[in-house]
Design goal:
heterodimer, A: alpha+beta, Heat Shock Protein 90, 5-stranded antiparallel β-sheet, 5 helices, B: alpha/beta, Udp-n-acetylmuramoylalanyl-d-glutamate--2,6- Diaminopimelate Ligase, Chain: A, domain 1, 5-stranded mixed β-sheet, 5 strands, about 35% helix, about 15% strand
Chain lengths: ~140, ~120
């Protein structure tokens, strides 16, 4: 594997209007690195959902994007409340988001399922009261 | 369908992206739930919505959409227009309600298109 390129982002949890900024940035960077449109969309949509989750539930966090030629990894780490029941959280439609978040177009219980759908592999490490780290891997098609 | 045609059909006004009205679009979706847009939609070009926050523009960027239509005559904040300009997305505003706006576009040949039929 070649030397990876790494990007780091601080996700501000104070302000919902800024949620998604890092993902838009990553989309631009991946375009500059000439990845194919499908890969770019999968990575940026999954990261966007994760970023929104961190802002809604965990008061922000850290995002790392590691880019190889053949693989892209997105690591989202927060020190929020943790997820008590991961399999429940993975169900489409299950959400603990408040009504004010729903009125902003999120909190439909699709975030984690979407992240799983768009990534090739997703791992959730979570401890209640300590935080959650979601690691998503994306395989870049050859050619 | 050309974006110009959408303007005619929906009696819409152009809030930004005047230079892209000749571009063609082949599919559309209407939703106020951004997570649903991100879940069920691929290769969509037009997003009709009643939401007017920055996340609408970011969602459109994520999905490689070309055009956002704000229905019910809603007036988005200036920052929404600014972000759309920066991202090269056409923003329209139509007095029609969501159901009617979607219906008019569908009737005239702009279908759901790349909906993920799992």
């Amino acid at each position: 594997m070649s030397e990876p390129i790494q990007f780091h982002f601080n996700i501000d949890g104070e302000d919902f209007t800024s949620a998604g900024k890092a993902s838009v940035q990553v989309k631009k960077l991946l375009r500059q690195l000439s990845f194919d449109a499908d890969t770019i969309r999968r990575v940026s949509v999954a990261m966007y959902e994760g970023e929104i989750n961190m802002v809604i539930h965990a008061n922000g966090g850290q995002a790392d994007v590691i880019v190889w030629d053949e693989k892209i990894e997105v690591i989202l780490a927060d020190t929020g409340p943790g997820i008590p029941d991961v399999s429940l959280a993975m169900q489409e439609g299950f959400s603990t988001a408040k009504e004010n978040i729903r009125s902003l177009g999120f909190g439909a219980g699709m975030g984690l399922p979407n992240m799983k759908r768009y990534s090739d592999d997703m791992k959730i490490d979570t401890v209640v009261g300590e935080g959650t780290t979601v690691t998503m891997s994306f395989t870049v098609p050859e050619g | 369908m050309k974006i110009k045609t959408i303007i005619d059909l929906l009696e819409a006004e152009v809030l930004c992206g005047e230079d892209m009205l000749e571009e063609h679009v082949y599919s559309a979706c209407g939703s106020d739930m951004m997570s649903d847009v991100l879940a069920y939609v691929k290769e969509q070009a037009v997003l009709l919505t009643g939401l007017i926050n920055l996340q609408v523009v970011r969602t459109a960027v994520m999905m490689d959409m070309k055009c956002i239509v704000f229905v019910r005559g809603k007036n988005p904040p200036e920052e929404v227009i600014e972000l759309a300009k920066e991202c090269g997305i056409v923003v329209l505003r139509s007095p029609e309600r969501m159901y009617v706006a979607c219906g008019k576009l569908y009737e005239n040949g702009l279908r759901g298109g790349g909906v993920d039929e799992e």
